[in-house]
Amino acid sequence: MKWNVIRIAAVAACTLGSAAASAQSVEVMHWWTSGGEGAAIGVLKKDLESRGIQWIDMAVSGGGGEAAMTALRARAVAGNPPTSAQFLGMAVVDWANEDFLSDLTEVATKENWDRSIPPALQRFAKFKGKYVAVPVNIHRPHWLWMNARIFNDNGLRPPTTWDEFNATADKLKAKGILPLAMGGQPFQEATAWESVVLGLGGPDFYRKAVIEADPASMKSATMLKVFDQMRKLRGYVDRNFAGRDWNLATSMVIKGDAAMQLMGDWVKGELIAAKGTPGKEVLCIVAPGTQGSFLFNTDFFAMFKVGGNRRAMQLTMASAVMNPTFQETFNLAKGSIPARSDVPMDKFDACGKQSAADLKAATAANHVYGSLAHGHAQPAAMQRAYLDVITKHFNSDMSSKDAAEALAKAVVAAR
User: What is the pTM assigned to this prediction?
Assistant: First the structure.
């Protein structure tokens, strides 16, 4: 039934997606539709247009990319894929396994990508030793963002542990100030959850419970504490959070309608678009207890197997994405740090410089891990098993013990 739906959707997709782009163009599917994201994608669009390549935009909003992947699947099944599409790490691997992706090794070898792309990113950019995707950025999802005016007016310090976070949130709540801005979407709840896992359990526990999907870790006393903390977070969120997009939650912090947000550094893109300065109007620290570790997610552009001149346009686009000047300009707008390790950080804000320095230190300590919430820790089916339990617990009165047991069962079943 599922594939019948996809095939039906494919017919519509063929109509919506131009069957053949012009000779000097690239059709790009992505889900960067918020203000800050739109400004960032505009950088790539202008760069390609300066090279004489028309940008044909196929933006699909919603769900942290889930809607875009559904639309992309319909196009691919119909034999009408776009020139390129935005992917998260595990999705690149999945599509490469299905033999949809084009080999970019020609341009990668010419430009020596191995020298500038960190090994953690090469794991996803390469398939069977050949480049099939080009990384755009490195995001860090475990940040805590705070409205500076609210903190200053109430004599509060940024919390560095979860106990401090709870004490700060309780003080704000007692004063009638909403402690935490959040949206009721699975990826947002999972973003908070993985920050709590890392913050309370440390890097080794995160590795066992998330990267290795160890059932014993999921039923441990530490995991019970994780779900206890998630229950506390639910008490700091407003009643109208269901279905709220992450950027609307960010706007609440920027405007002072809420004090804090647990979200990745793409928040900076929204702040920059609102003419703010990261680290000034909105303060940034890593999520409580996660100091010394680095969770990451990277956006990739992968190219589909196409013929004729479209292939040449793909290689040009791949080269443009890896250009150091583009990487700097794009990531300054996006809020992330460059995927290239050789791009100077001089122009980046304090939050970006901290992220780059922390990545270097965490790499040396072997404490760099892929983000579960953002598609870099587990394949899609396993990720969904985690998210289903996390969101069910967050939106119900399920006990921590029941949640931990349900998580262990769900992950075993999804293997």
Answer: 0.88
